[in-house]
Amino acid sequence: MKRLIRAVIDTDALRANLARIRSVAPGCKVMAVVKANGYGHGLVPVAKTLLSADAFGVARLEEGVVLRDAGIGQPVVLLEGVFSAEQLTEAAAQRLDIVVHEEEQLRLLESFGEPHRFSVWLKIDTGMNRLGFRVEHVDDAMRRLRALRRPLADLRVMTHLSRADERDCDETAQQVQRFEAAAARYGLVASIGNSAGTFAWPTARGSWVRPGLSLYGVSPFAQEEGAALGLRPVMTLASTVLAIRHVPKGEPVGYGGTWRAPRDSVLAVLAAGYGDGLPRTLEVGAPVLVGDHVVPLVGRVSMDMITVDVSGLPGIAVGTAAELWGPRLPVERVAPFANTIPYELLCGVSQRVPLEIR
Ligand SMILES: *Cc1c(COP(=O)(O)O)cnc(C)c1O
Question: Are 296 and 307 spatial neighbours (Cβ–Cβ below 8 Å)?
């Protein structure tokens, strides 16, 4: 039986996007960022598809453990590092690489007594003001990391870009400058670019890039879609028409009766709602693909359903296929109608939506 709503994952597209990133950033190693359940695409299936990545990046220890339990042997980097001695011990047991971004994490390493030798990415804050050692504290952190009783297997440096998605903003160039000023003399392997840095700022890559969104075929830039960057959307959020309704002119539709039919209308009811991760803030007029037609959302998003206006369109019936986003309706086009960005829509696909890995 075909499920009413499902996230269809195109593994060929995923592989093609990794290849595309490698061609955009020749010579760079790629840390494939798979946090937040692979941006909603499924942590383990994504990692298993991208075994040729040089490493995987996750936000939380638990995500790293899931990868190890699934038999992933590649380097896995905890992008936020660890928060306690127990977590550090677990990271060692699971052979997870760690980011060290603040003082307390240095202390944890200094009091770590086991024989494991960590690979560490020292994170430098060059302007994001979120995680990382401020430039003036880098020397001290570096000294302490080099003086550890348990020598590190590897010490590398990284920073994160705050505005790389703005092609004509010079903050990225300044961040790179601050990074170089703080780290260059150590001559360590460096990682700078996220997706936007990788595509828009050749000087903001470092020898390791850390793409997330672009792997999934989606553009980090507001004015460009993934296809323009040579990427292929990986997820199709597919659903089905549950019912067709003929609504006379003037009648309200959905909770709150906030939308009224401006004329005698034919509506399709689709199995997709905020219970599936479609934001309730999605506005009337948001595009939805039904059959081969892009049609507007009408009325409020409810938990399990939405309604769309299919008036005058032939061939739409109960059972007709629909897509909330996918290659034919890029998620970049949908996100503005929920006043959000594609990242949030992809990560927001809920637990009850089955993944169909192709
Ligand atoms: C999430 C994340 C990335 C990936 O960012 P994208 O914009 O999705 O490419 C890279 N680096 C770090 C530290 C991150 O947290």
Answer: no
Q: Model confidence over 282-330: pLDDT tens digits?
A: 999 999 999 999 999 999 999 999 999 999 999 999 999 999 999 999 9
> Which residues are near ligand 1 (CB < 6 Å)?
33, 35, 79, 160, 194-196, 210-214, 220
C-beta of residue 36 within 8 angstroms of C-beta of residue 214: no
pLDDT value at residue 2: 65
Please give the mean pLDDT across all residues of the chain.
97
Extract the tokens encoding 351. 């637990």
How many C-beta neighbours within 10 Å does residue 207 have?
Answer: 14
Residues that are catalytic: 35, 255
- The encoded tokens of residue 149 equal 């009783």
* CA 208 – CA 70 distance, rounded (Å): 25
Q: Which atom of ligand 1 is nearest to the CA of 215?
A: 9
The pLDDT tens digits for 50-61 are 999 999 999 999
* Atom from ligand 1 closest to the CA of residue 343: 8
The interaxial angle of helices 103-110 and 85-93, nearest 10 deg, is 70
Nearest-CA residue for atom 8 of ligand 1: 212
Site of tokens 């991208």: 50
